[in-house]
Design a protein that fits this description.
mainly alpha
Amino acid sequence: MHDPDGDAAAAPSAPTSADGVSDEGTDSLRLEAQAAVGAVAAHLRNVAATASTEAELSLASLMAMAAAAVISLLLVVAAWLCLIAAAIWFAVGHGLSLVAAFLLAGLLNVAVVVVLFLWSRSLLRNIGFARTLGLVFPESR
């Protein structure tokens, strides 16, 4: 600081600790660090609460989807049984014996199951992420 007279006067200095850092600076840094730690902790609590809420929502949605899948499966089975019953009724109405109509319906069911089984086996190779695993772990091939 300068005096109005032009003489230089010594500026009052802040009290310093033994290592040369002012006590005000140390307190200021400590307060800023505590504020930063508090902000990080609050953010982590917010993230944890959001993740928990999303997990609950995901579980509820998954359960609703599973219930819808079970209901859909039951409706598909009922529709398939109705189609088979209608085919048997049609066959018996056109002169086929009841035993032959049931055998034909049974053979039709077995043929559909075999076709679906073979198709699902062809899709099985896509489930294990074989190409991705080969890229990530090339020595596993």
